[in-house]
Amino acid sequence: MTSAETEPEPEPESAPIPGPGSGHARSPLVVPVLAFCGMVVAVMQTLVVPLLPHVPELTGASAGAAGWLVTVTLLTGAVFTPVLGRVGDMYGKRRVLLASLGVLTLGSVLCAVSSDIGVLITGRALQGAALAVIPLGISIIRDELPAERVLPSIALMSSSLGIGAAIGVPLAAVVTENFDWHTMFWASAALGLLDLLLVLVIVPESGVRSPGRFDVPGTLGLAVLLVGVLLAITQGSDWGWTSALTLGVLGASVAVGLLWGRYELRTPSPIMDLRVSARPAVLLTNVAALLIGFSFYANSLVTAQLVQEPTSTGYGLGASIVVSGLCLLPGGLAMVALSPLSARISAAYGPRTALAVAAVVMTLGYGVRFFTSHSLWLIVTGATVVACGTAIAYSALPALVIRAVPVSETASANGLNTLMRSVGQACCSAVVATVLARVTFVVDGRTAPTLHAYLLIFLIAAGAALAALVVALLLPSDRPGRGTARDGGRPGGTVTVSPPTSAVRGNA
């Protein structure tokens, strides 16, 4: 018996990422257009935040129903992001990108033409489904751009999610205070239509395809699993964390998840390749994404509310909606400026190091926030430092993903990573709501959160950032030749991923 017969041939752990997609992306406008699409989608996620307190009087709906204008975008975004990423890998990223932007535009129009809460929730659900634009854009960049442009372009595309969120709140606040509230939905519809036209004219179709049949049962199982878990997280504060309804939904979700996982491991073309997702490099990156998403969202959630608290609380600044929204604007601008820097950190030292630096910066930002919660300018400074760390982290995460997965699964893998950020944000929203509702005192006849409630949130968010630092240090080392991302993932460089044996070239 030969040695080949006695010992199975080892499966290669890594292989170079294939080269650019036939040089299609010659236009220098491809990356700005994709990043603009990402920012528009992110703006849609936060568009209604300044409007929420006024929704009951504007629509006649209850406060609970108004809250669904935010919750439903989270649910549909969580479900459709990994699913549409997989569809893009199989049938064409540009096609699915256009479909996502079309759904966003339709949802915006629905919200613009109606004041009925049911129609508004439906429109917001359609807007949430467009979150898949982010991983699709990252995948197009990886497939089509030359080596020297990949890392900085991915950094900008990934950071667009945070940039849009930081810019969206103050813009929506200005519209809410000065115009009819439907105006912001008409504006979002116009931006969605502009995105569609720009993508049609400028962005090429990627030729990389993942073969196989679309996994319908797996998609339905994933949807049930995600909706169940996120419903329990987002509604647990209202339902009661130990109520039969919350525990029942969580229990049912776990049962569905076990059945879904067993099915996915056996099907030849799964909606989510669990074997790839279970690799330490992928799994730890997704855990880090959840923690970073949690830490980042705390910054966005509490800043506006903190500065709007009345001065009678002893710590509040009594700021207007517009002023409170503008507190996040410097952070959004800083994220734009830091995208190239974060790419250079990843190129020089590896995305693992960049993620660790990001976690440290976010922790320091919350340290500033903990000790300076009485001064508007210092609050803005702390929030901006957290945003700077977020920009570096959001740029490093997709670089970590693409070096660890086959090229044919780039969109679906980044879709899962984006999903984990959303889950982190959902967990953060639940924690923040619980803390602010329970750590309270009575002032001027009303119940308000104490300063200690906000400080506790800053400590929890800093803890999440520190946990992300630990996870980053546990990631595989950025050794030369093993994923340092020096050339953006192209032949002759050092980024390595699992061999893309299933990737095929289709017709653009």
Could you characterize the architecture of this molecule?
By secondary structure, this protein is mainly alpha-helical. It has 19 helices and 6 strands. The strands form 3 sheets. A two-stranded antiparallel sheet has the order 1-5. It is globular and about 65 Å long. The relative contact order is 0.15. Residues 1-25 and 480-508 have low confidence and may be disordered.
DSSP, total strands: 6
CA radius of gyration is 22 Å
Low-confidence stretches: 1-25, 480-508
Given the C-alpha coordinates, what overall shape results? globular
Provide tags for this entry.
disordered N terminus, single chain, 19 helices, mainly alpha
Write the layout of secondary structure elements.
Layout: H1 3-6, E1 15-16, H2 30-46, H3 55-59, H4 63-91, H5 93-112, H6 117-129, H7 133-144, H8 147-178, H9 183-202, E2 208-209, H10 216-239, H11 244-266, H12 274-277, H13 280-308, H14 321-326, H15 329-349, H16 351-371, H17 376-402, H18 410-438, E3 440-443, E4 446-449, H19 451-474, E5 496-497, E6 504-505
Antiparallel strand pairs: 1-5, 2-6, 3-4
Helix pairs in contact: 2-7, 2-8, 2-9, 4-5, 4-6, 4-10, 4-18, 5-6, 5-7, 5-9, 7-8, 7-18, 8-15, 8-17, 10-11, 10-18, 13-17, 13-18, 13-19, 15-16, 15-17, 16-17, 16-19, 17-18, 18-19
Nutshell version of this structure?
The chain is mainly alpha-helical. The chain has 19 helices and six strands. The strands form three sheets. It has a two-stranded antiparallel ribbon with strand order 1-5.
